[in-house]
Batch of 2 targets.
Target 1
Amino acid sequence: MSHQDRKSKEHMVVNHRALGQAVNGMLPAKAFRGLRVRKGATWGPRMLAAVAVLWAWSKAEGLKERFQEARKVGKKIFRWLPDPGTTYNGFMKQLQKWHVELQLLCTGELRTLMKQDPFGRWQIAGFVVIAGDGSRIELPRTRANEAAYSPKRKKKRLDKKAKAKAKRKREKARRKTKRQSQESISKKANSPQMWLTLFWHVGTGLPWAWRTGPSDSSERQHLTEMLPELPENTLITADAGFMGYEFWSAVMAAGHNFVIRAGANVRLLKKLGFSREYDNTVYLWPDSAAKKGMPPLTLRIVWVHNGKHPLCLITSVLSKQRLSDRQIAEIYKARWGVELFFRTFKQTFHRHKLRSHTPQHAKLEADWSLVALWAVCLLAQREIGESDGDPRRLSPAGAIKAIQQTMSQHRNRPDGPNETLWRMLGHALQDDYQRISDKTARAYPRKTKRQRTGVPKITTALKSQVTAARQLRKTRPEFRLPA
C-alpha cells in the first residue's frame, strides 16, 4: 500500500469516527432504550434512525443510491450494532412502520439541544420567538402523488339554465376539436405539490415543528395543530396570511402571544370599552363571534414603515413595558429568516423537488430531510461557537458540504487528516462579501407583480356593539375588568 493510499485510509477512518460522534451527539443511545423490537429483527430503531439521517445527508443522485451510501456509512460507524437490511424497499417499509416514534424522538433530542444553547439566542426580548410560514415543494407527477397532493376540484352546482349553457359550450368545443388541447392544459396544470408549513425558531435560525399536506392545505390549520408543541412563553410572528379570530383565539388560549401583520381583509374596532383602553388599543370582534357570545380580542396596534408603505402589526402583548414598539418591529423584521430557511431547504439542500413516486415515501423523504438539515445546522453552529465564531454567520451550504464530503468514500481534498469534519463545520461561515441590500433596482423579467397586502380597516364601535360588549361583561364574570 502506497503512502498516499495509507494516508487516505487513515483519513477515512478519522472522518467515519467523526460522523459517528456527530450522529451519537444528535441521537444518543439512551434515547432509544424505551423502544423494543422483536428478536432477530433486521432493523433496530437506532440504526434505522441513523441511516435515515445519513440517507437524507447523502448527495447521491437517486434515492436507492443514497440508501446504499447511508447503509455503508452506518455499518462502519455502528460496528457493534447488527448489520442493517440490504434492500431499499425493506428500509422504507421499516421507516414507515417506525416513523411516528422515531420522528418524535429525533425532534425531541434536537429541541433539547436547542434549549441548551450557550450563546444566548433562545429568547428575544424575553420571549421564545417563533416564526410561522408555508411553502410548496414539487413532486414527481405520478397518479398516486396527484391523488394525494393535487388540489381537489370543487364541483359547482348549476341550475338548469347554466347546465344547458355548459352543455352547448362542451358541444361547441368538441366540434372544433379543442377537447384534446384542453385535457393537455389540464394535465399540465395538475402538477402535484406538497404544502409544508413550518414553525421556525428565530433566535437560532433552526426549525421547531412542521406539518405537510396537499398543495391546497390551510396554513392556519397546520399552525393550530402545532400549538401544543411550542415551548412556554412563545411569541409567534407571521405575515398577513395568518389572521382570523379563530386562529388568534387559539394562540391566546394556548398561553402564547403573537406579532402578526394585518392586511386589508381585517376589520378592527376601537373605543369598544370592553377593556382598559389606550391610544393603540384595538379589538377584533367579527359579527359571527359576537352572535355566539364570544368575547372580543383586545389587541395592540403598531405602525411601522418599510421605506415604501406603512405596515400594520397586531400583537396580543398589550404592555409597552413588556414589549416596546421598536422590539415589535425588529421581531417582525427577523421573521424574514424563515423565507431564507425555505430557500436553503429547497435550493441549497436540493429539495425543491422530491424524488419519491408515492405519497407515503414523499412524506418520509420530506420529514427526514428536514431532520437532517436541522441536525447539520445545529452541529455546525455549536462548532462555530466553540471556535469563538458567531453562530449567526453559519453557512448552511458549507455545513452540508462538510457532511457530504465526509460521507463520501472517494474524496478529492488533498488537505490531509487535519481537514476533519469538525474543522470543516467550524469554518462553515458566510463570506464577508457585501451583498446588495436594496434589490428594487434589479430587473426581474419573470417576477410576477404581487398585490399589495394593504392595511386593515379600523372603525369606531357602534352603540349596539358597545352595548353588547357591556352586556357580555355583566353576564360573563370572567370577562369583567379588574378593579
Note: The first helix runs from residue 3 to 26.
Target 2
Amino acid sequence: MTTNSSALVYQMGATPDVPGLRLRGFQGDSDYPKMVAVIQSTIAADQVERNDTVESMANLYAHLHNCDLSQDLLLAEVDDQVVGYIRVWWDVEAEGNWLGWHVDFLHPDWRGKGIGNSMFAYADTRLRTIAGQLRGSEHLPEGRPCYFSTTAQSTESYRIGLLEKHGYQPIRWEHIMVRPDLENIPLATLPPGLEVRPVLPEQLPAIYQANVEAFQDHWGYIPPSDQDYQEWIGHPEFDPSHYQVAWDGEQVAGMVLAYISPSENEAYQRLRGWTEGICVRRPWRRMGLARALLLRSLHDLKASGMTEAALSVDTQNLNSAFNLYEEVGFQRVGGYGFYRKAF
C-alpha cells in the first residue's frame, strides 16, 4: 500500500521522468532488506564505511521518535527495485533551535536523474508541513529558529553537491580518528578515590543518565527520548563488557563506552574496537580521568584481540579532546559535517 508520503511528491509535480520509477511510502518490515541494500550500494562510490544490517535497522525503526513512518519515509523504486530512500524527523536542541532532520541514500547507478532532487523536495515539503502543525506549541513557539539539518561524510561528493544545490551549508565538523596499532599503550592510572567495576545490568540506567548529563555541555546536544535508551540496549551487538565506567562510591564519574562490532570487522577484514561515549561529569573533570579511562579501553581492546581502535570527535570540542586523542596515538583518517539551512 502506498502511503501519504508519495502523495506529497506527486502533488508537487516533482517526479522525474525515469521509466519504471515509482515513489512510494513505507510498507513495513519487508522494506528493511531493500533499504540496507541501497545503503551498501553507496559504500564504494562514496568511499565510506557503513555497517547497517537488517537487524540494526529493525531495532532503530522500532524506537524512532518524532517520526511517523506512514508519512515521514519515502522510497524510490525502479521496476520494483528500491534504489533510494529518505526519512525525516524533528528534534529541539537544548539551545532552542528546532531541527528538521533527514537521512537519505541513493544507489550510484541512479544518481543524476532527478531522483535525489525529488527526495529532497519531499523532505523539504514534509518538514515544512510538520513545522506548520507544531507552530505555536511548546515544541515550536513563535520566534524559535528553524533549520533543516543532516550530516554528510567528507567523501560523499555527490550528496554534498546535492545539499549545496538545495541551500545547505556545513556548520560543524567531526573527525574520525584511528589508532593504527595497540602497541606501546601507556599505563592508565585512575585519580585517587575512583574505581572501575564490571558493568551490571541494573547499573545501565544510571550509566546512561550520567552519559546524558555529561554530554549536555556539548554542541548540538539534544535531550534524549525514552526511545533512545531502548534503542541503545536493543542493538543486536549491544555488549557492555568492554565499557570502562569510573565510580566514586555510588556515583558515576566518567566513562568510555567501548565496543567491538563483529559484523563491521568481518565486512572490512580487520580487528578494530571503538572507544566512543567518552565523557566525564563536571565534578570529576580536569583530573585526568578521561585519559585514564581511554587508556584502560585500549588495553582492554588489545586483550580482546583487537589490533586497532577508532573514535569520532568534534573538531571544536571545548574540552580539548582532540589534543588528548592525538597524544595517545590516534590519527585523523576522515570526517563528516553537519549541514543546515534556515527556513
Note: The mean pLDDT is 94.
